Amino acid sequence: MVGAEMPMTSDQVIWSEQNRLHIAYDGLTPAYGASNVIAFTGTPADVLNVISVGATVVVMDDFGAEVKCYVSASVPGGAGTGQITALPYTANTIALAGLSGTVKVFVYGSEYQKGSSTPNYSATQTDGYISVDPQFSQFSNSPIIIRNKYVVNGSDMAQIGWVEVATEDGTSGYLWYLKAESETRLRFEDYLEMALVEGEIATGTAAVAAKVNGTEGMFAAISDRGNVNTGFTAAAGIDSFDAILKNLDTQGAIEENMLFLQRQTALDFDDMLASISGGYAGGTAFGLFENSEEM
User: Rounded to an integer, what distance in angstroms lies between the CA atom of residue 87 and that of residue 57?
Assistant: First the structure.
């Protein structure tokens, strides 16, 4: 996160997140054949080409084939209309390198001839360097008002007394104790947490007409712009889990990842691990304690 503002009079929270440091594109369309031109027509309409002449790139398709290339020409063009000419280091053309379909392009460096200059890109200097400005993605969310209350009649106040209690937060001692009021407070605190996890933005016409805005909870945010996997089965075992790890690796060098699983998927994970590591001789060991039966 690079910035945030909370104009609560407008009932929204706005924050910005900077995009990735390195240059990468997905869904580009090579000309194939004898040509090494890669067009940006397959990308989202607002994507600009900022790959400079002299850049060295990795070009890979959706089937695992890849080739490293030198960018000999680059046309920034407008949004979604740019193109580059990528000369493979190990083949005459991208097609002969075994690639097909749309491709991903990742810039990993550059190469220039000895004594060459590096001018700025312009309409008359098409081999110049294209400056890259940081881009930001802006997000917003709406808060919600949560209410709960407990009503007690005056005659019921006799239910209060000095009682020694131990609460769920670990505290204990002699307190003024009214059980229903205490549970109402605990329930309200649970609602505070669950609303942030389970909340949904209102998009249905009935909810919108009732002026119910909703709020984007954690699960809704993950479904919208996170990674969601379906169809995992214990029968597929480690192969399905490897596919999940490969997808997580595409997010960058993230030190830790968290998986939120429904009960059936959690049981499938248990069955997968049990099938390859039963604690017997020759079984595969995982974790700090190597699946010790005593842990």
Answer: 10
